[in-house]
Amino acid sequence: MSERKKKLVEILKSSLSNFQEVIINNSDASKLARHSGLEKRQIDEFNEKAMEKTVTLAQQKISEMMSENQLVERFEELEKLIEESDKLNRQLDRPIGYQSIKPKNDLRLHLVATSQQSIIDSENEIKELESELNAIQNDVSRQKEVYNELVAPIEKQQQKLWCS
């Protein structure tokens, strides 16, 4: 994993852990009031401060991510490219926007991609179900073996009783 991705993962993890701590601590105000001896007003103030801190931390982390990925610069470059593309399209008298070759072809390509993805998803699901089925079959066969081991002495005793 690249350094940038590692940093982004760390930023997101720390943001989520801070947010989770706030939620966990705020989940039961009455319990907090009983055990801490604080009044409801004090608990509400605490909750407000905790939420403000969480929002501040989230904003800081998002700003760090944006600066790390240079999102602002990339959006500015994208806007310049759009403007240049619009100018070029006007010079060449081309309409701006998506140009369909043939609507039926576009629809057909979309359907092919969609059906291929659903086939892949279905095959993955089938593999998972087959592995679950194999695991269940293995469990059943082990249980049958244990059952047979437990039943064998009982059947021998019954045969001895019937023979005598």
TrEMBL record:
Residues 68-146 form a coiled coil. One of its GO terms (biological process) is cell division. Keywords: Cell cycle, Cell division, Centromere, Chromosome, Coiled coil, Kinetochore, Mitosis, Nucleus. GO terms for cellular component: MIS12/MIND type complex; nucleus. InterPro entries: PMF1/Nnf1 (IPR007128). It holds the Pfam family Nnf1. It is found in: Chromosome, Centromere, Kinetochore; Nucleus. This is Uncharacterized protein.
